[in-house]
Design a protein that fits this description.
The chain is an alpha/beta fold and about 400 residues long. It has helices at about 35-40, 40-50, 75-85, 100-105, 130-135, 155-165, 170-185, 200-210, 225-230, 245-255, 290-305, 325-335, 345-355, 365-375, 380-385; strands at about 15-20, 55-60, 90, 110-115, 140-145, 165-170, 190-195, 215-220, 260, 265-270, 275-280, 285-290, 305-310, 340, 360-365. It folds into 2 domains: about 5-175, 3-Layer(aba) Sandwich (Rossmann fold); about 185-375, Phosphoglycerate kinase, N-terminal domain (Rossmann fold), CATH 3.40.50.1260. The protein has 15 helices and 15 strands. A 6-stranded parallel sheet has the order 3-4-2-1-5-6, with helices on both faces. The protein has a 6-stranded parallel sheet with strand order 9-8-7-13-14-15, sandwiched between helices. The chain has a 3-stranded antiparallel sheet with strand order 11-10-12. Strand 3, helix 4 (about 100-105) and strand 4 form a beta-alpha-beta unit. The protein binds adenosine-5'-diphosphate (ADP) and magnesium ion (MG). Magnesium ion binds near residues 345 and 346.
Length: about 400
């Protein structure tokens, strides 16, 4: 078990560097378009403030190409936090160095300082020792609560954890326990839904989940590789040719183990510029969504589940012509009397678009990190944290 902030004693007056994931979508005016990730961090910040720590917040935002980019400044996040913690929050215009050190030196117990975008530091993503050193100079203790980047070995997620006494925050603790429980003590029937476009990245995930799930539903761009493996027509839909054998093996294993795999039985496709509904993807058709019969088939299975894990939209949901399948699946997951877990950047945004987000058991805040956990892998930035 990893140390959590509850295991840290005597935080009063200590400088705690809290790595957060404030990588939120902003518009060009600095308005925060989705505050989920900031809101998810508030309990940990509140706890540390309550313990009388000096809370130094550190995060990345986007992918800056130089040491400053005004569109990737964390200042809007500071403004947000100032409203949640009146008179407690300050902003450091640099992520480390003299100015940041001066700001930290001025901090009182229970105050919060948000550092500027840590990726403005050259070498942050390469875990450069100089960056590690600069960050360590700001703090006595390191807390990692940046779930979205726990699969990354950066200076601010990994390097500092080696040097400073450390722990994980409430968000990382929650995310880890959700996935651990889902696999260790799954509720049955356990239905896993996969979709999206990145078959190559996700085939391992199916392999892992297959050991625990009763039913696996495959839709979206992922389905065509499996349909091809079954010898069905796929037209010009996306197929990962070098994964067809893997798909075949998965179908075979599922058969042997008695795991049900459901694939689409009809499609919404594009033929030239025309949208067509079809059972068979002939000639030049490109499948972009599951059809009504597939929706019915999948929905019936989902409504019967006690646990659902979902990664990957079942269609090109960003395009209104192809979003119906994903919206209907979201509705079914919300309506089912099941504990539901949704991971993956696009999957979570699709759920939000559907309006059913508040009826999902757990919406993971980390895309890549949640995929790793679904694959049954551990996360380097968590592994490096001290055990209890
Ligand atoms: P997540 O971000 O949840 O892990 P992915 O990034 O793997 O999910 O997949 C989401 C993408 O998959 C979306 O951009 C969506 O448009 C695309 N997609 C879904 N179905 C299809 C399809 N049939 N053909 C092409 N792209 C698809
Ligand atoms: Mg995605």
């Amino acid at each position: 078990m990893k140390k959590t902030i509850r295991d840290l004693n005597n935080l009063k007056g200590k400088r705690v560097l809290l790595r957060c994931d404030f990588n939120v979508p902003l518009d060009n005016y600095g308005d925060i378009l989705d505050d989920t990730r900031i809101a998810a961090e508030i309990p940990t910040i509140k706890y540390l403030v309550g313990q009388g720590a000096k809370v130094i917040l550190c995060s990345h935002l986007g992918r800056p190409k130089s040491s400053y980019d005004k569109y990737l400044s964390l200042f809007p996040v500071a403004v947000y936090l100032m409203k949640v913690f009146p008179n407690k929050v300050k902003f450091s215009r640099t992520p480390a160095g003299k100015e940041a050190e001066n700001e930290v030196a001025k901090m009182k117990e229970g105050e919060i300082l948000l550092l500027e975008n840590v990726r403005f530091l050259e070498g942050e993503e390469r875990n450069n020792p100089k960056v590690v050193q600069e960050l360590c100079r700001l703090a006595d203790i390191f807390v990692n609560d940046a779930f979205g980047v726990c699969h990354r070995q950066h200076a601010s997620t990994y390097g500092v954890a080696i040097k400073l006494p450390n722990a994980i925050g409430f968000l990382v603790e929650k995310e880890l326990s959700v996935f651990e429980n889902a696999f260790k003590t799954p509720k049955h029937p356990f239905v896993a839904i996969f979709g999206g476009a990145k078959v190559d990245d996700k085939i391992n995930l199916i392999n892992n989940v297959m050991d625990k799930a009763d039913t696996i539903i495959i839709g979206g761009g992922m389905a065509y590789t499996f349909l091809q493996a079954q010898g069905k027509k796929v037209g010009r839909s996306i197929v990962s040719l070098d994964k067809v054998d893997d798909a075949q093996r998965i179908l075979q294993t599922a058969k042997e183990k008695g795991i049900k795999i459901l694939l689409p039985v009809d499609h919404v496709a594009l033929l030239g510029t025309k949208v067509v509904k079809t059972k068979s993807l002939d000639g030049n058709m490109i499948g972009f969504d599951i059809g009504n019969a597939s929706i019915k088939l999948f929905t019936k299975e989902i409504l019967n589940a006690r646990q659902v894990m979902w990664n990957g939209p079942v269609g090109k949901y960003e395009d209104s012509r192809f979003k119906k399948g994903t919206m209907k699946i979201a509705k079914a997951v919300a309506k089912a009397d099941a504990y539901s877990i949704v991971g993956g950047g696009d999957s979570v945004s699709a759920i939000k678009v559907s309006g059913f987000a508040d009826r999902i058991g757990h919406l993971s805040t980390g895309g890549g990190a949640s995929l790793k956990l679904m694959e049954g892998k551990s996360l380097p930035a968590v592994d490096i944290i001290d055990n209890k």
